[in-house]
Amino acid sequence: MGQNSTEVAYNFGQMGSVFSNLAKPVYPPKDHVIVAIQFLQTGNVPTAMITETLDTFGPQFPGTDDTELSAANYQGVTEAAAASATSAGVVTIADISRNAKIKKGQYVIIGADADTIDAGITLDTGAGHVDPVYQGPNAQGLVVESLTGGTYGTTLTLTNADGSVVDLSSIDADNMLYFLDEFHGVGGTTTESVSFPETTIFGRWSKFIGDGKPVICYFGK
Question: Do 57 and 131 have their domain in common?
Answer without folding.
Answer: no
